[in-house]
Amino acid sequence: MRRPLALLAVVALSAGTARATEPLDLELGRLGAPSAAAWTAAGVTDPAQAARLAGESKVRFARLSADLGLAFGSALLQPGSTTGHSGFAFDLESAYAQVHHGVIGADHAEPGFAFDAPDYWVTREMRPSELFITSVHVRKALPFSIELGGRFMYLSQSSYFAGQVEAKWAMLEGYRELPDVALRGAYTSVLGQRDLRLRTTDFGLLVSKRFGVNAVTSLTPYLAARFTLLSASTDAMAFRADDTTGTPLTPDQVLASSAAFPDFSGLFYRTTAGVRLTSFAVSLAAEVTYYGGGTFETKDPGPDDYPTLWVPSSLAGAFKLGFEF
User: Fold this and answer.
1) Nearest residue to 66 via CA among 317, 299, 309
2) What is the pLDDT of residues 52-105, one digit of tens each?
């Protein structure tokens, strides 16, 4: 009884992967199977070719995960100081984050395998050049120059959203001659795609300096050095539902074509520069975040490891309208 139930679960997971409802929803099954065994079950008889195809699928998943994870974690929109007269801030934010495209591997379907998307942005309808993310951001200052906060983010034209919690400690704050300096950490989890587990942990150093414009207005430029640890993986998915003639596969064949993307993790360095304008309780801010690109390499990679891959450079911009009390 347990085996039929497991097979039924695999088929259900496969069906759920394909049910994208919004233009930017992902169809992860179109990335190709990350397992050489799944390619072999699909009819690829050459072990070297099956391993190559699995490696290319992993690169597609890693590039897609990097684009999506860095986009959700791009906005900073705060200086090094803690917030407000009574220590409370409420912000409405928006961010544009650059994403990439590229053909990785074969640009055609492999014989005996339903695979049609070497471009790793496997969306339902659109091929985005940038992602537009809106968010609600709340921060609360505590004693000893500590600040806690949280964000709720939504990716426009998709079913995806993310939650973020953050903490900041202002080591230097409020000195006339010195800039405000703070350490900040944030954890973000992307939700809305049930097969995907995508998380980022952001930590870095913030430096800012407040300049008074008049009695009620101030201008605060800020600069941040940020390190982002990204982790991405999936549940098991069935990458085939039928053969090349359209005949449904048996449960055993579906199970043989199933695989999960193993955990991809990488450390990304980004720089953010921005400026905040406050007047009375109203706060405006705008910033730019730059990632310079990087190579991710696994020494002596095994069957479940990712091959060497390059994540290209990218830009993101963000803006906020908020209130600080």
Assistant:
1) 309
2) 888 989 999 999 999 999 999 999 999 999 986 678 999 999 999 999 887 787
> Could you tell me which residues are beta bridge partners of residue 190?
162, 198
Per 3-state DSSP, the chain is made up of helix, strand and coil in percentages (nearest 5) of 20, 45, 40
Residue type, 168: K
Which has the minimum average pLDDT: 247-251, 282-286, 309-313?
Answer: 247-251
Residues with Cβ within 8 Å of residue 289, at least 6 apart in sequence: 74, 75, 76, 226, 270, 271, 272, 315, 316, 317, 318
Cα-based torsion angle of the residue sequence 105, 108, 112, 116 in order, rounded to the nearest 10 degrees: 90
| 219 Cβ neighbours under 8 A, 6+ residues apart | 210, 211, 213, 275, 276, 277
Confidence (pLDDT) at 9:
44
Provide the token pair at 92: 């409405």
| Whole-structure pTM value | 0.88
| Nearest of 262, 243, 269, 247 to residue 70 by alpha carbon | 269
The position carrying tokens 């200086």 is: 79
Task: Please report which residue ranges of the chain form alpha helices under DSSP H.
Answer: 2-18, 36-41, 47-72, 251-256
275 CB contacts (<8 Å, ≥6 apart)?
219, 220, 221, 222, 285, 286, 287
Distance (Å, whole) CA 74 – CA 79:
15
Torsion of CA 127, 242, 237, 312, to 10 degrees: -30
Closest alpha carbon to 208 in 171, 245, 242, 158: 171
Distance between CA atoms of 36 and 146, rounded to whole angstroms? 49
Closest alpha carbon to 163 in 144, 147, 150? 150
Instruction: Give the count of beta carbons closer than 10 Å to the beta carbon of residue 308.
Output: 12
